[in-house]
Amino acid sequence: MEKLTHQFAVQAEEAGARLDRVITSHCPDLSRTRVQELIESGLVLIDGHAARKGALHLRGGENISVEAPERPPIRAEAESIPLDVLYEDDDVIAINKPAGMTVHAGAGNVSGTLVNALLGRGQSLSHSGGPLRPGIVHRLDKETSGVILVARNDAAHAKLGEAFRRRTMKKTYIALVHGQLGGTSGRIELAVGRDPLHRTRMTTLRKTWRGAALANPRVARTDWRSLATIDNTTLVEVRPHTGRTHQIRVHFSALKHPVMGDRLYGAPGQLSIGKITLPSLGRNFLHAAKLGFAQPRTGEWVEVRAVLPAELRAFLEKLSAAAGERPGRIDAALAGYL
């Protein structure tokens, strides 16, 4: 099995930074998760000694050596996992993906995915996405729930992919964000790119605090409409017009209104209202509630809806009670999504 060795010296301006973050900035082919695996396996050396933890803060001047053995190839295997099928015809399947389910296999995550579940149904899927992503035309983040479309054949895959590229798909999300947004509606137009220092994150900043340039920023637009304010939070209907990675999450974080539960983009671990502290949500309050598309064979317009999950409704009820809201106000604001 081949292995890749990275060697570099920690720069003076990197003094005080965490080991895992410094490694990912010098080795963009390695994710933070992969770096942590290598540290735990004793494959990261600092001045010839095995590093003990990724959170170690460096002084500057250390010599770092990273050995990264090649992983065995990942395969998508069929698994018997129940799926909530919202719509199905000869060309497409619309699934209501639960939060916590990854769409397809990747490094460190090879089972329990949507693809594993789809293969477990024993049906044909398109091959255009490759062996690890059969049928997958677009994705939802792991902690985002809701409607996701799957292509059953290559012709449908091509048509749906073109619809996403031409932005003729109509996507609607429901989100709860921290703080009260100014006005009743708005548009966020900020380019999104991979954060050069934190490879699991996206960012809208053209340069980071250490001066690293934003890699390959891409135009992104998100429209929103306020449905209700509940204490110091806002329930919003969101329509992304582009499909950048983490787009909704990073856009609202850039406005200093992160999505509830989204620790990666700055949301606090708990929400307190007066003397009441609500239990942690345990996921992002972001749900793909509606998706409209032209059926790839006939061109007929199809609209698929996924009702708000029970755990999000329960959180809203607790939040509303803590804020002293009158019963039914939030349900009225969410008419059509419950």
How do the strands and helices of this protein lay out in sequence?
Elements: E1 3-9, H1 19-26, H2 32-40, E2 44-46, E3 49-50, E4 63-69, E5 85-88, E6 92-97, H3 114-120, E7 145-151, H4 154-166, E8 170-178, E9 185-189, E10 192-194, E11 202-203, E12 215-218, E13 221-230, E14 233-240, H5 247-254, E15 271-273, E16 276-278, E17 286-294, E18 301-305, H6 310-322, H7 329-333
Explain what you see.
19% of the residues lie in helices and 29% in strands. The protein is of the alpha+beta class. The chain contains seven helices and 18 strands. It has three domains: 3-69, Structural Genomics Hypothetical 15.5 Kd Protein In mrcA-pckA Intergenic Region, Chain A; 85-166, Pseudouridine synthase (2-Layer Sandwich), CATH 3.30.2350; 170-292 and 311-333, Pseudouridine synthase (2-Layer Sandwich). The mean pLDDT is 90. The protein starts with a strand and ends in a 5-residue tail after the last helix. The protein has helices spanning 19-26, 32-40, 114-120, 154-166, 247-254, 310-322, 329-333; strands spanning 3-9, 44-46, 49-50, 63-69, 85-88, 92-97, 145-151, 170-178, 185-189, 192-194, 202-203, 215-218, 221-230, 233-240, 271-273, 276-278, 286-294, 301-305.
